[in-house]
Amino acid sequence: MAIYAIWNNKGGVGKSYLTFQIASEYARQNPHKKILVVDLCPQANSSSMLLGGMERGEERLSRIHVQQPRRTISGYIEERIRSPYVSPNTGSSYITQVSWHNNSVPSNVYLVVGDEQLETQSSRVSSATSPGPQDAWRIVHLWIRDLITDIQASWNNETNCVFIDCNPSFSIYTELALTAAERLVIPFSADGSSKRAVKAVLALVYGIQRHTGDAQSEFFLNTDRYRMSLPTIYMYVGNRLTQMNSSSASAFRTVVNEIGDEIWNVWRTTPQSFCIHPGGASTPVSQRAFREMFQYEVNDANTASVVSGALGIPIASLTAGQKNVAGKNITVNQSQLDRQVPNIRDLVQSIE
Ligand SMILES: Nc1ncnc2c1ncn2[C@@H]1O[C@H](COP(=O)(O)OP(=O)(O)OP(=O)(O)O)[C@@H](O)[C@H]1O
Ligand SMILES: [Mg+2]
């Protein structure tokens, strides 16, 4: 039973795509566990994919958004804005069983639907952190943890696993996600600015100063002040490895390794910020062993990823052939599936 946040301070690196694929695949591999996805991004991309993709998913999302009461993340946040310091214990009424809307997703996947209202709520969430009781900051930052605890309790604490899709910006709701999470998955793409983005993650969450004298984030300082725990780094994932030719693959690997070096340096000073896995594994003593434990790569799935996301069909259930996406015929090649399916399967097997 673990709570994972999928976060990078950079946009478009695959947080939502990987949340969708990982949660669906984890559910397929663990049919006796309950899987919860909490969509803490106002764009609600992972919700849209889970609910059926570009057309059906979007339509269902709109329907859920106009229902009263609003059974979305914003519905819960609204309740907490009204009751900031006392948990209403109502979290379990905010879940949607995904297969009810999209039977391509295993029936053990549940979702707290994302909602654009998060943007307009964020200033009110921030206001609740002060003034108020002396530890208002702490209590407000635990809202999402409270939500998850309510849901787990309603499942009689049956074995479960939680994935939180985050917004790229380090907004108040991203802070709430990181407080709720026990483990952190950092996806990144292999382009020039990725290294800077990963450094930003390390600075904002773990207080790793980039330049001497840099101010540390209020999130890091307050987490320490209130003796709250930070998520531990579980894996960093180079996403969208292009296999067009060997030079693009090696350029990709160079960037992944450079970022790996950055994270390795953090490991050397603060190994307690990492989650050794699988359970019982010994602490890596060389950089190579460190990479084997924490560094992952996901291929660019090309057309298969477009069709998978657009139709809300997890990659393991997608078949090759012609698919209709928004009135256009798109062909999914078996060769793409042959690469992507085991890639996602193996990645998920490393998630406990
Ligand atoms: N492995 C992959 N292969 C092919 N396409 C991918 C892969 N991962 C992500 N994508 C595509 O890249 C685009 C950006 O991905 P996604 O929306 O998941 O990023 P994000 O980090 O959630 O973005 P944001 O910061 O805006 O929330 C999407 O169109 C997605 O389908
Ligand atoms: Mg996203």
UniProtKB/TrEMBL annotation:
AAA domain sequence ranges: 2-211
Native source species: Shackletoniella antarctica
CDD domains named among the record's database cross-references: ParAB_family
Pfam families named in the record: AAA_31
Protein name: ATPase
Domain of life: Bacteria
InterPro entries listed in its UniProt record: AAA_dom, DNA_Partitioning_ATPase, P-loop_NTPase
